[in-house]
Amino acid sequence: MMLLNVGVCISFSIILFIIIINFFSKKRISKYENTIFVCLVLLTDLGLSIVIFIYIVVLYLRPQFSFLLKPLVKSLYIYYVLWMYLFVSYNLFLLKEKNLKKRKNIFLIIIYGLFFLLSLLLPFNLEITESYFYPPGIGSYAQYIFGIVGFIIIGINSFKNFKKLKNKKFIPLIVCTILGISASVLQYFKHEFMFIVPSNAIGVILMYFTIENPDLKILEEYTRNKKLTEENIEARTNLLFKITEDVKNPVKKIKHYSDNILNTNIVEEKNLNAVNILVTSKDLLNNVNDVLNISRMDKGRIKVFDTTYDVYKLYNQIVYIIKNKIGSNIDFKYSVSDIIPNILFGDASRIKQIICSLILNDYKNANQGVIDLDIYSIVKYDVCRLVITVQSSMRKLTLFEINEILSSNIEVDNNKIKELSELDFDLKLIKKLVDILDGTLLITSDEKGTIFKVVLNQLIKEDETSKKLDLISNKLSNKKRVLLVNDDYQELIKIANELKRNNYDVTSIMHGEDCILRLKKGDKYNLLLLDDELIEETIITLIKEIDELNIEDIVKIIMLDKKKESLKEHYMEKYSFKDYLLKDKYKEEIQRIKNKY
Fold first, then answer.
1. How would you classify the pairing of strands 579-582 and 555-560?
2. Are 302 and 383 in contact, with CB atoms under 8 Å apart?
């Protein structure tokens, strides 16, 4: 029977060795569960080697090397503890679908750290017969108890997350658990069957060919990425439609007022329409500057809060409050974009007060009407511009009233503001709250009702999904990354397309400020191509800002017109450019640069 056990262990050890070679020879996605799996594979192969060595000593090296048996058994006990810790951690991670909470992870480390010490200290005996080798004693019995504790932890968490167990990826884990329990019971009652370590090997092999196969992992991430991309495109299409409507409606009004001026000879009507054109164009300009203009959206220009909030949880809370406050006579419509970053830095309680107050103020004195709440975002790097629109048919404001609200500067002590907990402030206090959040309040009103628009720039807390997608992209792509800066749109597109044809991954931008923001954010590039004829800022200023970032492993290349070819040495000697690109013959130049770098 011992020879059978040796044969089984050797067979599984060879299979695991092949898996290890295959696993490490392929591109992999570095994630928490993958790291645990790698440790499980290596540890299981080590456990099989320990068992094989024990049998070799028992069968062929006694009595000269019998002194090795106790250290080997101790090593096997340590293997049991470490393997169970990793297996429990892997299960808990998948059940939670995120990194283990710090307290729970510390709890596991303490528990299994204690088991580790007990495995070293508790005594055991050696029992050797012609058919089996077994180490009875407190040390061995303790290993069964440690295993039971691990399975209990897995069982409790599985019960709490029972719905997730329906997912196919948990089938291998369930099989591993059943195998582990069965092998432990069998080995306890039938000492000749030392199948705990081989059962671990079967479980690991099963995991490799199902949930931990590198090819399947990459395919899974590609599928997830494709779904996210499709959702992103749809959401951005909807966003473009909203932005188009925001611009198109005022333009239609301006056209209408212009036609009125042309079609009447009454001076008073001409003057009234001229005033309406002025007001509408001012509203349009405010909308463009405060909502659509992203040139000043960067971390250095926004108010940064220490607290974070979940946008979608806040949205659900607001909808719940409003639904319970208003009656059935009010048609309350609400929507939120799917592409808003989940976690933002900001003051959630004040945002809730602003939105609820804008809605509930209209509801107070109305018998019926329509209220439409819409939230969307414009994202630039690590900054999210939240655009919160409340449209009400129940309130109509005059131009004088709007100006009075927007120009109001009521004095309210900040400590007093913190104490306020109402959800129905008047419009002047709402304006004050928006100012405190460093936001903008826009108001437009006509015969159909009033539109309130709150614009808030919020810092994004980077989520794990974004990190994983960036990591996947960098891991799977062999292309060199290029950051191309040129404010001539035609040139930009022409050069970018040629770079892509030469198998470069190109990020093309028209503003030097965007270049600085991307580099500050930590985006990695192999080549940086700068045009020396930027309009908004001088190339020298931009170069100095880039140099201050002390970015390594990036090749700076200056792009020049033929008439400025004589300046190439100047840029390369004085401003640390590695090379130049003559735009007049950009195709040949790109090929030259490709061959050189």
1. parallel
2. yes
One-letter-per-residue 3-state SS of 327-344: CCCEEEEEEECCCCCCEE
Q: Give the pair of three-digit tokens for residue 333.
A: 């419509």
Question: Tokens 């645990």 correspond to what residue?
Answer: 36
Single-letter amino acid, residue 313: K
How far, in Å, CA of 560 to CA of 477, rounded? Answer: 30
Domain boundary among the residues 212, 242, 273 is at 212
DSSP H helix total and E strand total for the chain: 20, 14
Q: Domain range for residue 155?
A: 2-212
Q: Please indicate, yes or no, if residue 504 is contained in any of the structural domains.
A: yes
| pLDDT cut 70: percent of the chain above it | 83
Q: In this structure, is the dihedral angle defined by the CA atoms of residues 395, 398, 402 and 407, taken in order, positive or negative?
A: negative
In this structure, is the dihedral angle defined by the CA atoms of residues 87, 88, 91 and 93, taken in order, positive or negative?
negative
Report in angstroms the alpha-carbon separations of 256 from 251, 261, 272, 276, 455. Answer: 9, 9, 12, 10, 28
Structure tokens at 273: 């329409």
For helices 138-160 and 69-96, give the axis angle rounded to 10 degrees: 10
Whether residue 327 is found in the same domain as residue 389: yes
Adjacent-strand bridge partners of 557: 529, 579
Measured between alpha carbons, how far is 136 from 116 in angstroms, rounded to an integer?
A: 18
What residues contact 44, with CB distance under 8 A and at least 6 apart?
16, 83, 197, 200, 201, 204
**For tokens 């040796």, what's the residue?**
6
Domain boundary among 293, 324, 343: 293
In the beta sheet, which residues pair with residue 562? Answer: none
**361 and 300, same structural domain?**
yes
**Burial label, 112 (beta-carbon count in 10 A; 0-12, 13-18, 19+):** buried
Its pTM stands at 0.55
pLDDT digits (tens, 9 = 90+) for 10-52: 888 898 888 888 777 766 555 677 788 888 889 999 999 998 9
Length of the chain: 597
Tokens of 298: 């960067």
Strands 127-128 and 133-134: antiparallel
Q: Which of 546, 529, 543 is nearest to 583 (CA)?
A: 529
Count of domains in the chain? 4
Higher pLDDT, 49 or 446: 49
